[in-house]
Design goal:
Blueprint (H helix, E strand, L loop, with lengths): L18 E4 L4 E6 L16 E5 L2 E7 L12 E11 L10 H11 L5 E4 L4 E6 L3 H10 L3 E3 L1
Parallel strand pairs: 1-8
Antiparallel strand pairs: 1-5, 2-4, 2-5, 3-4, 5-7, 6-7
Helix pairs in contact: 1-2
Length: about 140
């Protein structure tokens, strides 16, 4: 595995410059009761995640994956865009998410974050993508188009 290639341009900075990309499509953040069966309908596409906790099951998936009609116990918030932080990032590296979240916080863009073994994703509301991108580029990050 090759680490750091095209993902971070400066590891010595308190706020590293990252390579980002905007995923195609819109996403939902959903919730089911903790005892629910795994939502196989959610498990496809460019980005999906199912996280179980004692009190809930959280789901991130593409909007087109959501079943119709909605299951009665499904809570759902749609209209999210996903920004990928290009990794991989080793576990000992600190400040990766903060380098993205702090500029977004400064301009009032709310987020939903999730991580994989190699990288991180930050979801922002679709109507705030331009504002988020401008803030992130202003903070020294770059976008792959």
């Amino acid at each position: 595995m090759q680490l750091y290639t095209d993902s971070v341009t400066d590891f010595t900075s308190d706020s590293p410059a990252l390579v980002l990309s905007l995923l195609t499509g819109q996403f939902v953040v959903a919730q089911l009761p903790a005892a629910s069966p795994l939502p196989t309908w959610a498990m496809s596409g460019t980005l999906w995640a199912v996280v179980g906790a004692p009190d809930e099951m959280s789901i991130v998936t593409a909007e087109e994956n959501v079943p119709s009609p909605l299951p009665g116990d499904l809570k759902l918030e749609g209209g999210w865009a996903a920004i990928r932080l290009h990794g991989p990032f080793p576990f000992h590296l600190t400040g990766i998410l903060a380098a993205v979240l702090n500029p977004l916080k400064a301009v009032g863009v709310g987020i939903f974050a999730l991580s994989t073994f190699d990288t991180d994703y930050v979801l922002v509301k679709a109507e705030q993508v331009a504002q988020a991108r401008a803030a992130l580029e202003g903070a020294g990050h770059s976008f792959k188009d």
